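A note from the maintainers: we've had questions about how concatenated examples are separated. There is no special marker in the raw files; a new sequence line simply starts the next protein. For clarity in this README we add a label.
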Amino acid sequence: MAKIYSKKALEISKKLPKKETIHFLLNYSKALNILKVGNKSFEILAN
């Protein structure tokens, strides 16, 4: 068991997001508006 965990800890791999994930986050951020009224803020998602 110790050998399995130590091998996984030594492996270094770069994990990149999928293109679909990036597009989803960009589209979400474009559609999100934050409206501040006084000391409160409202999030409006226009889709």
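[label: protein 2]
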Amino acid sequence: MNLFRNFTIRDWLIFSGNVCMLITSLLYIAWWASAFYPASECAPPVSSFLLLLTCLTGIAAVILFICGIRIPLSSVQMVPTRQILFSTVILYIVLLCISIFLFHRPVTSELFIMMLWAAGELCALSILYSAGRFGIKSVIVLKLLIFGATAAGYICYLNYYLLEGIRAFIDGLIPLALDGAVVAVFLILHVVM
């Protein structure tokens, strides 16, 4: 097996963005545990520091994705980035309205973060497929994983304020763990393809 076979600058930028995204997921889980685990005795400065690191690695991931995605392709992109981003904005607005008006769920940043994550992963996947890095089977698997994690995350998002204690903590942890697992699969496939 030849790992990192023929990686281009685009590959390295997107791969590095996903490494940052995986670190972001792990830091987000650590922050969530420090701030919301019912028996947590974590000092507020430690929890705040974990949240700061989470934000910084998340921003780094977005910047690396943007840099990798903006490198021109020599072929036509499977699904144009603008189309993915536009569709994600529309979906975000629809889900936000459903959350507010149908489920009366308070608005928090998690839905926006969830949609930003899904859009970034789908844009990266589209670019890598169009560049010949991924085959159709890998694309289907990753799309299903991204859509599944996003759907599960949205369900958890709707349920969070209906739960208390450890059940609320676990509900909030599920989307973070799922997103991290999807990114780990994406990274593995990117290395071996």
